[in-house]
# Entry
Amino acid sequence: MLDKNGIAKRIAREVKDGYYVNLGIGIPTLVANYIPAGMNVVLQSENGLLGMGPFPFEGEEDPDLINAGKQTITTVPGSVFFDSAMSFGMIRAGKVDLTILGAMEVSETGDIANWKIPGKMVKGMGGAMDLVAAARNIIVAMQHVNKAGESKLLPQCSLPLTGIRCVKKIVTELAVVEVLPQGGFKLLERAPGISTQQVINATAGKLIVEGDIPEMNLN
Amino acid sequence: MNKVVANAEAAIHDIKDNMTLMVGGFGLCGIPENCISALVKKNVKGLVCISNNAGVDDFGLGLLLQNKQIRKMISSYVGENAEFERQMLSGELEVDLIPQGTLATRCLAAGYGMPAVFTPAGVGTEVAIGKEVRNFNGKDYLLEMAFDADFALVKAWKGDAHGNLIFHETARNFNPLMAMAGKITVAEVEELVPVGQLDPDMIHTPGIYIHRIFQGAGYEKRIEQRTVRSR
# Structure
């Protein structure tokens, strides 16, 4: 079973040289730590920055320089600032190659819910609806089951939707799953020490298992 | 072309109860601190505020919320504010949550003289309820209307008497968009410089959009999430 850093490490393998990548809050933010040195990747922060760098050293925090999670950050050489309209303009126009975000639920047709639990949690969608409506390649980083032990990979989402038919791949502590265009979760890889049966048991939506499922390569 | 006013009180003197205000900033980054303080002092009520976030409990728009001056918030994310949540759940505060890119683009449309835009954000979700859906080239889009705001309150890094503005780093965010979109736009700046000193190639917002500008004072620039790495 993977921890949060393990999930981030596996997702980092989906990042290709030359990509512009938007990382959501939570596990997706950790992905930046595992992008191989020397790979040309530019991180987009939707509050208006291309070329996001690591957190600043203590004492060097700049209140004018934050990421979409409102955390203090730095820039890397070649970075650029822009306004929020241009930021979502480049997202809508499909210029961002890969979007990685968290989710509360994903359906077997690629619908995603991650912004609201009626009566409990209403924080807002932020930029998530714009990102999932437009990005060409969306990977979800999340736990396979919720704290109550219920699967988050469902036939249909029960929570208010963030977007429809948009998630392409899911990486959880148990598995890597592809969402097929015609619907269904296709099991691609198992996490180290996890059996195919354990993934089947933790998946409520239609899980497609074909042949022997390889264990993830995290290196 | 001298748009300079003495201070925030002078700049917002004619903001009245029940007006609609755009307020720049992302979280607490790039918010018009001086104008917000002046609004608290003026104690205007029933405001409709268009702003990406609602501040924190004791800073930013949170100050207006504490003082019960806001009737309705139009925002994309309001997660850092307990008083906001309390007022929303009790029904004291009306809240319209909209996608962040939609918020930005509805400002942009207003500033560009366009009544509406089509965006894919929110298709198939509760955001789409009651909105026209149009299919272009096989994909659905929602019709979203340009904002109509009485005032826009923005914060810039540098500005001149013409109202030309330059923003700094990610404190730019919604500020240039809202600057273009207010019927009256007030800009507060960290540094008011003589006309001619700003390089025309480097100006982000042309002064034509700005009605009043003043030298801000006493900026706190609070950090919401202080994150550092070890040396």
Notes: The CA atoms of residues 16 and 94 of chain A lie 16 Å apart. The first strand of chain A starts at residue 20 and ends at 23. The mean pLDDT of chain A is 95.
